[in-house]
Amino acid sequence: MQSEKRDDGSDDNDRDGSPRLTQYAELHGCSCKVGQDDLDALLAETGPFDPNDDLLFGVGEDAAARQLTEDLAMVTTIDFFTPIVDDPYDFGRVAACNAASDAFATGAVDNLTGLVAMGLPRELTDTAAEILAGIVDAFEAMDGVVAGGHTTLNPWPFAGAAVTATASPDDLLTASGASPGERLYLTKPLGTQPAMGSLRVRDEEFEATVKNACPRPVEDVGREAIEWMTSPNREGARIVREYATTATDVTGFGLLGQARIIAERSGVGIEITEFPVIEGTLELSRLFGYGLESGESAETSGGLLVSVPADRAEQLEASLSRADVFFHPIGRVTDGENASIADPSISEVTR
């Protein structure tokens, strides 16, 4: 395949001649999701999703849950997106971790099963095997299995999975249980959007601007972002469900968007006073205009956002520390409405 020149002087192939997956989509990773307001409007317009007695929870949550027996519930969800990274194998790993995270956010961590969803343009069909290998390896690392899937030709590449997992109904969490006075925690640093955006720059003049804006090599920032995106939320979820009243994962709507979901569904206020970011991503976000400082930057395969009663916060922290699961306190639940981030204290994190 001969590469096609882009308006910015770049082409569809990387410098080593391999296809650049991100050049085949205008939006990348979870930033390709339909916006929160548009999604709310769509659901309001179609309106077929009345409460269902057969479901423990469904539309509006990270996943749906159905009780199978007195002590067993099945959680189902689906998630797929466009490439956020050019390497096909890493793309598959990120897509798998991101899809499974929606199940983990509900506390369902057992019997993980995935059905792959993948679409590729004709020019990229040779990358399918590597993408699939990344998905399979990621599921195996999460003690899960890939049971099948569906592939299609598509102008923009995408990959992900329909996921099922199980848990006791008593262990399940939603975004609806937060109460005033509780503490908020995040289990991964933010910044995947600016980190990966910096790696997509190929215009030589702007590439120099990006490198000068970042206090460390952008390759290191991107490598760490991939490491975070391919770190499953499974162990964190297993621990969190013992202490938390509410959980979700931070993805395309960003930290503030996910906090607003908890605030709305729980009927509380969310006050975010601090949060962690991958070192170097603040400067990159300011350059690209992604809004990381205000919690608006889209995250891909982000961490768990959980609410915990104040008298259980110390136990949660101790349990996460023993399991070597990253965590950072970020704020509190209030009597107010909506979610806010005002002059937050931002901690930079390196791996």
Automatic annotation (TrEMBL):
Gene3D superfamilies: PurM-like C-terminal domain, PurM-like, N-terminal domain
Xref: CDD domains: SelD
Domain of life (superkingdom): Archaea
Biological process annotations from GO: selenocysteine biosynthetic process
Cellular component aspect of the GO annotation: cytoplasm
Top-level class of the enzyme under EC nomenclature: transferase
Entry's EC annotation: 2.7.9.3
Region (Disordered): 1-20
Residue ranges annotated for the PurM-like N-terminal domain, each copy included: 60-162
A Pfam family annotated for this UniProt entry: AIRS_C
Keywords, comma-separated and alphabetical: ATP-binding, Kinase, Nucleotide-binding, Selenium, Transferase
Single GO molecular function: selenide, water dikinase activity
InterPro entries recorded: PurM-like_C_dom, PurM-like_C_sf, PurM-like_N, PurM-like_N_sf, SPS/SelD
Domain PurM-like C-terminal: 180-340
Name of the protein this chain belongs to: Selenide, water dikinase
UniProt source species: Halalkaliarchaeum desulfuricum
